[in-house]
Design a protein that fits this description.
70% helix, two-stranded antiparallel ribbon, mainly alpha
Length: 82
């Protein structure tokens, strides 16, 4: 089961397209963000991002994963507010 922090990391990386910018957005340094994304990929058994010299691009699996990840985060936030 993915952790919420891992979902946040994947979403930020997909939206920013760059590890450094995604890390800053989440108030992290780059190594912890990279670790969270790698752990998420290991948990799911699929590569979510193609790493490039310019940053990261979601793979087809990553694109398929993102809507569910966003929905899970919204549900968790709503549960916390209830």
């Amino acid at each position: 089961m993915p952790e919420l922090s891992h979902l946040r990391a994947a979403i930020a990386l997909a939206e920013e397209g760059h590890f450094g910018r995604a890390a800053r957005r989440l108030h992290l340094t780059q190594p912890p963000l990279s670790r969270q994304v790698r752990l998420l990929e290991e948990t799911l058994g699929v590569r979510l991002f193609e790493r490039t010299p310019q940053g990261a691009v979601p793979t087809p699996a990553g694109l398929a994963f993102l809507p569910g990840a966003r929905a899970a985060l919204r549900a968790a936030e709503a549960a916390g507010q209830a």
